[in-house]
Design goal:
With about 190 residues, this protein is of the alpha/beta class. It has a single domain, classed as Rossmann fold, CATH 3.40.50.300. The chain contains nine helices and five strands. Helix 2 packs across helix 3 and helix 6 crosses helix 8. It binds adenosine monophosphate (AMP). The site of adenosine monophosphate has 17 residues, from helix 2 and helix 3.
Length: about 190
């Protein structure tokens, strides 16, 4: 089993690259953002609670996303590996994920961190809003809030995994194919068979 965290700020291309990576490596894609949007669409109590926070650019509580990830791990017992996208977003989530994986006798193989400068991120989110229909992409104030939350709450997650020498920083600017190739090179270096 080989588990990957695709790490980076909102707009860094995690979703796009995740699609390519799961197709190539046969991994299960676990995006907490996608899971939360599904709950919102279905109008579940969890979805309604999350909606208010997401539309303000704030994080939903750790227990909520940890619970969703725990359920998804249990639901995929035979998986070749998991690709975590948009999770963990706090150090508490990272510690919880490590514990959950340990219970399944596995761990994180690598954290691939996409680096994109802030001007480019804003441009990408404005563009994405035209097709995604995501209210949290369309509003510039909400975007700013999401980048602030990323710096304050989520960047420490990279420092957490650096202690265990698991983080690889990669250039997330340029064309999608080149970025995909550099992600694959790093995975192939670490993954057995
Ligand atoms: P994303 O699609 O990953 O950009 O996530 C969209 C929004 O969902 C975020 O701005 C947060 O409000 C919420 N969200 C997604 N993943 C998490 C997480 N791991 N922890 C807390 N909130 C999350």
């Amino acid at each position: 089993m080989f588990n990957i965290i695709l790490f980076g700020p909102p707009g860094s291309g995690k979703g796009t690259q995740s699609e390519n990576l799961i197709a190539k490596y046969g991994l299960i894609h676990l995006s907490t953002g996608d899971l939360l949007r599904k709950e919102m669409k279905e109008g579940t109590p969890l979805g309604l609670e999350a909606k208010g926070l997401i539309e303000k650019g704030q994080l939903v509580p750790d227990e909520v996303v940890i619970g969703m990830i725990s359920a998804a791990l249990d639901a995929n017992p035979g998986a070749k590996g998991f690709l975590f996208d948009g999770f963990p977003r706090t150090v508490a989530q990272a510690e919880a994920l490590d514990r959950l994986l340990e219970l399944k006798k596995t761990s994180i193989g690598v954290v691939l961190a996409l680096q994109v400068n802030e001007d480019e991120l804003v441009k990408r989110l404005v563009n994405r809003a035209k097709t995604s229909g995501r209210l949290d992409d369309a509003d510039v104030e909400v975007q700013k809030k999401r980048q602030d939350v990323y710096k304050k709450e989520t960047l420490p997650v990279a420092a957490y995994y650096s202690q265990f020498d698991k983080v690889v920083n990669l250039n997330g600017e340029g064309n999608i194919e080149d970025i995909f190739a550099s992600l694959c090179t790093e995975i192939d270096k670490r993954k057995k068979n």
